[in-house]
Write a structure and sequence with these properties.
alpha/beta; Gyrase A, domain 2; Isoleucyl-tRNA Synthetase, Domain 1; 4-stranded parallel β-sheet; 3-stranded antiparallel β-sheet; 22 helices; 13 strands; globular; binds arginine
Length: 565
């Protein structure tokens, strides 16, 4: 229920609609001190228009306002304070949640318009790292949040499957590689060849020429080059998909960089037609001085394409294919300047939807405070982290709840959920120091803590032996003041869903779920739910509503909510 809206309507009609309802709504506050009511409206914003002192306005308005649904409405100095009728509030909120179930909080702001989400996008022949984890889980959650706001998300895995590094990889494989080794342990072997190449080429620069030659052959469709590249790509994807399966993340398209190989000539032509390309030391660049940015390098002196060349083709392709309301790139903050360049070039090209391009950056994952990188050898392998987490979760469950049915399944949901939640609870832009044990605790700000709150709600409902039908149709007026925080949080969920969407910020949902879990645990510690009195069914409807909203919040994050754990 949006009580701000009700209040704004009331005030606006008391003023004969002289003041816009939306302007009033925007000024309604939640007082810091609950003695000042549940909501408050500062009247001084009307003083100028009404030519009256704020105190007078408050006193006059209070007499005219429709007070239905409120316990009292009082003027205090330049404020009008609204005290909600708690039992009506409880009824309204719980009734809506139980009617709408998991659809509670849905809105249709997106009008089913497409939003493309460029996410995960690891590089072929390299391990999918913790850094790519962030893009994967943030992108997946943003997609869920967009759907809940009525958009139609399209998740695209823009694989790094093209570029001069494939020339190096082919060269290295042909020199030192072996088919059997690659089949047995693809990513590790390919990384080994690549690293070896970089060691040797310092003393043998001719290797670089060879690699360039191979990439040229690849771009020109040489069969041997293509076959090797395809094979590298297949074995890498197989390994990536294992990780995606564990995370429960699916993509709509895997249009990696190679997909745009035959679409770049047109881009170059468009740039030429607009006289945007300039020669600089043999290479072709677009000058971006006007944007205060470094020039964008579009073609190397040997004519080879670059990352940005492929991204230009990508953005234009998405535009034509999906007409997206937004084209999002969930990519680390190291690439902020790069995406500014990309957007600027598209603008210069006169691509109308350049304005719909949003880079959604995020911070680093650190290990012991240090940056991870393949080169330094400081890498945390995502697959291993997920396996370790599930193993640890299993040990915890074994200890806490040895008779639990379906233990393996639950351990999976808890172990994987802990990793996803441990990431998403942070503001997107913050760097995360990764400590597995901390993410798996059942106490504190963790995924398992929220999952456990949900499982506790479900366990109460099981023990109650009251049919869900009687809960849905029964009374929902919880008068216990201890329930008030929970009720207000439940009522707030639809607003949080909108905010998370506007800010592309899954942490809004994660933080909300922590707050709701805490409030529920506090309520539960204070109140015996399963006592046979007049309010039993109402309390159960509260518990059921909590379970519904927690499960839905976790779903938006891409985390499962087991009924028992
Ligand atoms: N493969 C790149 C990397 O690992 C990320 C690609 C992001 N998407 C894009 N359209 N540029 O850094």
């Amino acid at each position: 229920m949006d009580y701000k809206q009700t209040i704004a309507d009331n005030i606006s009609s008391a003023l004969d609609h002289k003041i816009n309802r939306k302007d009033i709504e925007a000024k309604i506050e939640v007082p810091k001190n609950s003695k000042m009511g549940d909501l408050a409206f500062p009247t001084f914003i009307l003083a100028k228009e009404l030519h009256q002192a704020p105190q007078i306005i408050a006193q006059n308005l209070v007499k005219q306002i429709n007070t239905e649904g409120f316990d009292k409405v009082v003027a205090t100095g330049p404020y009008i304070n609204f005290f909600l009728n708690k039992s009506k509030f409880s009824n309204d909120v719980l009734d809506l949640i139980l009617k709408q179930q998991q659809n509670y909080g849905n809105n249709q702001r997106g009008n089913q318009r497409n939003v493309t989400i460029d996410m995960s996008s690891p590089n072929i022949a390299k391990p999918i790292s913790m850094g790519h984890l962030r893009s994967t889980v943030i992108g997946n959650s943003i997609a869920n949040i967009l759907s809940k706001n009525g958009y139609h998300p399209i998740k695209d895995n823009h694989l790094g499957d093209w570029g001069t590094q494939f020339g190096k990889l082919i060269t290295a494989y042909l020199k030192w590689g072996n088919e059997k080794d690659v089949e047995a342990d693809p990513i590790n072997k390919l990384v080994e060849y690549y690293v070896h190449f970089h060691k040797v080429d310092k003393e043998h620069p001719e290797l670089d020429d060879e690699a360039r030659e191979w990439f040229k052959k690849l771009e020109n469709g040489n069969q041997e080059a293509i076959n090797l590249w395809k094979w590298f790509r297949d074995v890498s994807l197989k390994s990536f998909n294992k990780t995606y399966d564990k995370l429960g993340v699916k993509f709509d398209t895997y249009n990696g960089e190679s997909f745009y190989n035959d679409k770049m000539d047109e881009v170059i032509q468009m740039l030429k037609d607009k006289h945007l390309l300039k020669k600089s030391r043999g290479a072709e660049i677009v000058d971006l001085q006007k944007y205060n940015l470094n020039p964008a390098l579009i073609l190397k002196s040997d004519g080879a394409s670059l990352y940005i060349t492929r991204d230009l083709a990508t953005a234009i392709y998405r535009d034509r294919t999906y007409h997206p309301a937004m084209n999002l790139y969930v990519v680390g903050s190291e690439q902020i300047l790069y995406f500014k360049q990309l957007k600027a070039v598209l603008k210069e090209m006169g691509i109308p939807s350049a304005d719909n391009l949003h880079h959604v950056p995020f911070g680093l994952i650190l290990s012991n405070g240090q940056k991870l990188s393949t080169r330094s050898g400081r890498i945390i392998l995502l697959n291993k982290v997920l396996d370790d987490s599930v193993k640890l979760a299993k040990e915890q469950i074994q200890e806490k709840n040895p008779d639990l049915p379906n233990k393996d399944n639950v351990a999976n949901e808890v172990g994987v959920g802990a990793i996803i939640f441990g990431d998403l609870k942070n503001n997107r832009m913050d760097s995360i120091n990764f400590v597995l044990k901390d993410q798996l605790r059942f106490e504190g700000e963790t995924g398992p803590y929220v999952q456990y709150a949900h499982a506790r709600a479900e366990s109460i409902l099981r023990k109650a032996h009251v049919s869900s039908q009687s809960i849905v149709s029964g009374s929902k007026s919880v008068s216990d003041p201890a329930a008030w925080d929970v009720l207000k949080l439940l009522n707030d969920f639809p607003r949080i869903v909108k905010m998370a969407c506007d800010e592309f910020e899954p942490s809004d949902i994660a933080k909300y779920s922590l707050k709701l879990s805490k409030a529920f645990n506090k309520y539960y510690a204070h109140t015996k739910v399963l006592v046979k009195d007049d309010e039993l069914v109402a309390r159960l409807s509260l518990v059921k509503s909590i379970s519904i909203v927690l499960k839905e919040a976790l779903r938006l994050l891409g985390v499962k909510a087991p009924d028992q754990m």
